[in-house]
Amino acid sequence: MGKVVSLNISEKRGTEKVQVPSVNVIEKFGIEGDAHVGNWDRQISILPVEALEKVPSDKIEEVKKGGFTENITISGIPLNNLGVDSSIRIGEVVIKILYIGKDKYKEYGRPYIVSREGRFGIVVKGGRINVGDPVEVI
Q1: Which residue range forms the structural domain that includes residue 14?
Q2: Please, which residues have CB within 8 angstroms of residue 16's CB and are 6 or more apart in sequence?
Q3: Rounded-to-integer distance, Cα 34 and Cα 48, Å
Q4: What is the per-residue pLDDT for 90?
Q5: By the 8 A CB rule, do 8 and 36 touch?
Q6: A Gene Ontology molecular-function term (predicted)?
């Protein structure tokens, strides 16, 4: 079982996200107060910290120093368990992963790894998520 390491939101797309202790997740919509909410297929972004192992040595410091660009940072679940069409439960919230990475890769900071290994999906069941909550693949 994994856990939530950080929760992050921003009011405007394309900007670094601010850490918060908890979020309200709205079914079929996303995280309340985040710029990416809406009726589309990338309502929530997730970065497993295990993905940092895939960052080249010449990029790792830059990635670690970069601000958060994902909504939910998790740890403790192997990357191969977080594939397309898998679902995860965080507390009472259920998220279905529809994509790994983005069509265009970013070459700088935290977006470097999020654009390659971030998980993007939709909210199947809403609720509250807190830092430290357990994460499980269902």
Answers
A1: 2-137
A2: 10, 66, 67, 68, 69, 110
A3: 19
A4: 98
A5: no
A6: pyridoxal phosphate binding
Q: For 8-60, how does the pLDDT look when each residue is reduced to its tens digit (9 = 90+)? A: 999 998 889 999 999 999 999 999 999 999 999 999 999 999 999 999 999 99
**Any idea which residue has 């269902």 for tokens?**
138
Q: Which residues contact 89 (CB under 8 A, 6 or more apart)?
A: 135, 136, 138
Residue type, 43: Q
7: burial class by Cβ within 10 Å (0-12, 13-18, 19+)? buried
CATH number at residue 50: 2.40.33.20
- The pTM for the full model equals 0.95
Looking at the structure of the chain, the number of domains it has is 1
The dihedral sign for the CA sequence 118, 120, 125, 131: positive
